[in-house]
Amino acid sequence: MSLIETKLTAAKAITVASQATPADIPRGHARLRLAVGSLCGTDLHYYSHFANGIFVLNNPVTLGHEACAYVEDPNGTSLKKGQLVALNPIMNCQECDACERGEENLCTTKKFPGSATTVPHLDGFFRETIDHPARCCRPVSADVNPKHLTFAEPLACALHNLNTGGVKSGQKVLVTGCGPMGLLAIAGAAARGADVTACDLRPKAVELAQRVGASAGLVVGTFDDKDIEAQFDVVIEASGAIPAFNTALKAVRKQGTVSILSNVQMAKAEVLLNLIMLKEIKVTGSFQFNKEFEEAVQLIEAKAIDFDALTAASFPLTQTQDALELMVSGEAFGKIIILGQSTET
User: Fold this and answer.
1) Of 34, 191, 194, 219, which is the most buried if we count CB atoms within 10 A?
2) 158-285 CATH fold
3) Single pTM value for the model
């Protein structure tokens, strides 16, 4: 079985080709074989525009920063051949002030695969063989399903948002937007004991949100914002839509928190900033994750979340473009996963 890799060569253009494996593995890295990857909204932006907001690709690149893999060559590290590992894509410098504070997501010189944020760009995980820093590989127990382990990175992002938003047991939480990240935030908040309400334009997305932890669901257009005014301790904005952000400002209680999880694109927008002042609302953002990666892996090992319900579709690595086109269509509810050749069934 020959090795393959995918490349985004231009907007809406993915090529599949044989992958050449370098003879040497970088020091401190292990050679891995892709088990399962999953699509992210940033992959969608790069695929659609060859850019993600202000970050424009300079050359073709392999997408993908959510994945797990099998160890093929530990290369002198503590990893074991054949181990399944979750891949942390944040390769931080470990020396700057942010890293010293444990905030590797804010490291000024970190490297990140499959993205224009690192120049020269690093290829991402949608390829058969991956050389990755061993310190960024988290081994898991043998009974973990790789189709679930690929959720470690996006789940960590959702958990980081819950932490910046201060979500805890007993709180009333509204999540606006039931795309993959919103659904993971719902599952994570419910696992913490919060009372979660889900909100989306799409009835099917709201139904799925209730399957994975929301106690109630709201479909946009079937309720008035006045019906939920000042009802929630925390609102997680996961849609990226300005009307949803304004709904969040209305729905949160006085001195409550609105935590932004969505990847809001640059655009002119009218925001109800007066409500932030009048209600003393705390508005916070969240970017990637820190210690939450370990928390996410532990939740996966504990089988605390129904990842099968959160999986919309699966495609072999050779059909990565088809997977992205399904994501573009908006017809998938939940995560779309990519199977390495060793995992295809």
Assistant:
1) 34
2) Rossmann fold (3.40.50)
3) 0.94
